[in-house]
Amino acid sequence: MRQTSSLSAGVMRRIRHFGDFVTVPLAIVIFADLADMYRLYMVLAGVAAWTLLEYLVHRIVFHRYPVGRRLHQLHHDHPNDPDAERSSLSTPLIAFPIGFLLIGAAGVEEGSAIFAGLLLGYLAFIVVHYAVHCWPIEPTSWLYSAKMRHLAHHRFENCNYGVTTSFWDIVFRTNARIIGKRQHSGA
Q1: By the 8 A CB rule, do 39 and 111 touch?
Q2: Is 157:62 a contact under the CB 8 Å cutoff?
Q3: Does pLDDT of 10 surpass 80?
Q4: Per-residue pLDDT tens for 60-107?
Q5: How far apart are CA 185 and CA 80, in angstroms?
Q6: Which of 47, 24, 181 has its CA nearest to residue 113?
Q7: At residue 185, does pLDDT exceed 60?
Q8: What is the pTM for the complete model shown?
Q9: Three-state secondary structure along the chain?
Q10: Residues 89-107, buried b or exposed e (16+ Cβ, 10 A)?
């Protein structure tokens, strides 16, 4: 029985990695090509929008709503276990309706540009999140601060909801440093 469980976990891990690191980059290339290079600013706007979406979903859906919290708690309980991570199989089910809505609302070129940016932001998120949990990161690496921010989130859970950037944590005052200063000053 143990071998079957291990085998199916290995297969699911490969499927997730294929979904994350093959189909998402391929979709980015396809939608960026549909957008044309003159809409690069819209791709960048999509990346920026992703960072806000990442922050809000993590803070509100995964830490406040019971269903999202239950699903996300498995990751908090086993942060270095890739099998406790979200399923990449659900990404297309959520992402592509959003992409089609964007294309329907903004047109093929503009909608594709924004969607390519959202997907690029998601790809940055999964790479950074995987790295901070699974790669040895030296203090001299640019990823080290992301790792320290995310480890603080796992320890305290009420701060550092952004994985790819601390920008929204600073804006919404959920950055661990801001919270620490407030608590330290007695405010």
Answers
A1: no
A2: no
A3: no
A4: 998 998 887 887 887 788 777 766 565 555 676 788 899 999 999 999
A5: 34
A6: 47
A7: no
A8: 0.85
A9: CHHHHHHHHHHHHHHHHHHHHHHHHHHHHHHHHHHCHHHHHHHHHHHHHHHHHHHHHHHHHCCCCHHHHHHHHHHHHCCCCHHHCCCCCHHHHHHHHHHHHHHHHHCHHHHHHHHHHHHHHHHHHHHHHHHHHHCCCCCCCCCHHHHHHHHHHHHHCCCCCCCCCCHHHHHCCCCHHHHHHHHHHCC
A10: eebeeebeeebeebbeeee
Token output for 45: 């706007």
Which tens digits make up the pLDDT trace of 13-35? Answer: 777 777 788 888 999 999 999 99
CB 175 within 8 A of CB 169: yes
Q: How many residues does the chain have?
A: 187
Question: What's residue 87's pLDDT?
Answer: 54
Q: Which two tokens stand for residue 161?
A: 């909801």
Contacts of residue 51, defined as CB under 8 A and 6 or more positions apart, other chains included, come to: 121, 162, 164, 165, 167, 168
Q: What number of other Cβ atoms are within 10 A of residue 187's Cβ?
A: 6
